[in-house]
Amino acid sequence: MSEKQIKLVYLTPALYMAGGVERVLTLKANYFAEHFGYDITIILTEGKDKPFFYPLSPKIKVINLDINFEELWTCSFVKKIFVYLRKQRVYKKNVKAELMRIRPDITISLLRREINFINDIKDGSRKIGELHVNRANFRNFEAGDTNAIKRLFAKFWMRSLVSKLGDLDKFVVLTNEDKYAWQELADVCVIPDPLSFVPKQVSTLKERRVIAVGRYVYQKGFDLLLQAWSRVEKEYPEWQLAVFGDGDRTSYNQLMIQLGIDTTRCHLNGPSTDIQQEYSKSSLFVFSSRFEGFGMVLVEAMACGLPVVSFACPCGPKDIVTDGEDGFLVENSCVDAMADKMSQLMHDENLRISMSLAGQKKAHRFEMQQIAERWKSLFELNE
Length: 383
Fold this sequence. Notes:
Elements: E1 7-11, H1 20-35, E2 39-44, E3 61-64, H2 77-102, E4 106-109, E5 126-130, H3 148-166, E6 170-173, H4 176-179, E7 188-190, E8 209-213, H5 222-232, E9 240-244, H6 250-259, E10 266-269, H7 275-280, E11 284-287, H8 296-303, E12 308-311, H9 317-320, E13 327-330, H10 335-347, H11 349-363, H12 368-379
Helix pairs in contact: 1-12, 5-6, 5-10, 8-11
């Protein structure tokens, strides 16, 4: 417990969704309230009467301003501008009123709409920004977009954002790789996401099964994974591949047919209610993302004793996996390299065992207690 009860305010859109940001915020806030005795308030804008997806400590106060920015999703382009400006004015007014009332020691923005005004509120709190994606994918501006107006807007928007981030007392990113992407900023520190569980069991590495976990979307690269699997499945007929995640699997099932993959040994599953058990029933984890904010499933798999094969995509894997020690990092989106390393680990049980032990040791660095102490040091730096 801290000698002085520190007041924290978090600003984030919602807690009703089963997203990674929601899960990590809930984990951290619960730990800070229960173990450090912090006085925590979370200010939301969405999901007024919806239950929180992840359990929240009763010690944490929640204020829902009911701004409903989600209304913008259904507006035409012209109407969206006017609705956004009106809602943004209301949001700024209400956030200012709450911060002046609460008078927190620290206000933490998860870098949504409040980053536009948070530094202007003189409530006496230190302002911290917390980014959960990498810089290149912070907003969905396509680098190769031929629309000159969009490119101009993206450039203007990023310049404005960098200026606002520079006014924060501290800017926190998830990886060292992403830290280097923000060279214009001085006060950037790295604190990774925490592991959400301590494994109840680890893999025996006896099951001939490869596992992958993530949403069925372009970012996760399961099309690349299936291409790699099609190169190794005939060489190892006793092995199978199991993928778990949310989303539409139609195009991936079609790709399996096109690639001639044995559908009796390749299973595209929905989300698992016990992903730890699925990890423990596997002997190799494959991470095929084209890009990431961090890649917590890598840490989860390593904690459960799985060696990993991962694309060296931006950002996350290079901060988590030590190539050749606890897994393999291969050139981003290179299907042949992924297939080669999968084959090597499927063939060599001793290599799987040595990488498993190294990965379990590595995963301890991401346990909640370790990550919480890093946040504590940042929060109490000037106390």
